[in-house]
What we know:
This is Oxidoreductase. The protein is of the alpha/beta class and about 325 residues long.
Amino acid sequence: xxxxxxxxxxxxxxxxxxxxxxxxxxxxxxxxxxxxxxxxxxxxxxxxxxxxxxxxxxxxxxxxxxxxxxxxxxxxxxxxxxxxxxxxxxxxxxxxxxxxxxxxxxxxxxxxxxxxxxxxxxxxxxxxxxxxxxxxxxxxxxxxxxxxxxxxxxxxxxxxxxxxxxxxxxxxxxxxxxxxxxxxxxxxxxxxxxxxxxxxxxxxxxxxxxxxxxxxxxxxxxxxxxxxxxxxxxxxxxxxxxxxxxxxxxxxxxxxxxxxxxxxxxxxxxxxxxxxxxxxxxxxxxxxxxxxxxxxxxxxxxxxxxxxxxxxxx
Length: 314
Ligand SMILES: NC(=O)c1ccc[n+]([C@@H]2O[C@H](COP(=O)([O-])OP(=O)(O)OC[C@H]3O[C@@H](n4cnc5c(N)ncnc54)[C@H](OP(=O)(O)O)[C@@H]3O)[C@@H](O)[C@H]2O)c1
């Protein structure tokens, strides 16, 4: 539990500009609980906001970039976050994050969600030895004997690669397994795979202006008892472009959201099928801002509809 006062101190120390009326800032020293969700297949609870890394950790060549990412990971953990989403295909992401986590001594504090795919994004076949090699490299980079979650990236050769992951889950080298896609052309395949495979997780795109997943995939995940990681909760730059120069509505304070980041994240994690969202950021102040969405209360269904209409009307 963190008090509003402590949260704001942390956020302000990290330089977060909260779109908050000054009067509200110190109005009350309300206790804000960290919001967690249970992984359906185990009951293990995870904070509902984590960190993604595709376009951020992937290209760290300059030392100041690396310092910023170090502070991003530090902020994630300091504020109670755990889930870190990466992939071998995100260039340096796995290696850099693994190294930074060791330096900060937080390797065991993180819930490592990585991926496997040596088959490409279409109908390509995965060579099983090459896929195993890629997974072994992830173990070395992350530096843990057991990886929390490995998912088949973009549904690449699921029979082969999920087959390997099932064996590894059996051997207890991987705790949870799943599949990911953010491509609409793969949604039907995703649904078919969810219907037949014993997945612990799926990773999908979902945002306040991208609601396709509410139709079939999120209800199916609930029915099948699968955890859901939400990718691209801001549509990368799409939602930021939409709200540029616009204030967060004051009624967002009813569910403890004081910035657009918190508004968008609280919308997705309030869906009962969602386990956690993993927005990417290269800035510690944005990480602190995003973690604010894992605190306090979440909007109910009526409020979520109001949020959708508000954004659609901008
Ligand atoms: N198939 C897959 O498996 C798959 C596909 C897509 C994504 N993913 C995962 O999901 C993660 C997230 O998706 P994404 O990176 O595509 O997009 P996203 O999380 O929707 O958006 C990231 C963008 O939002 C900005 N941002 C983050 N927090 C902010 C804040 N509080 N205020 C203002 N701007 C903020 C970031 O810029 P700053 O750096 O300036 O903060 C970045 O440009 C990926 O990194 C990856 O780990 C997986």
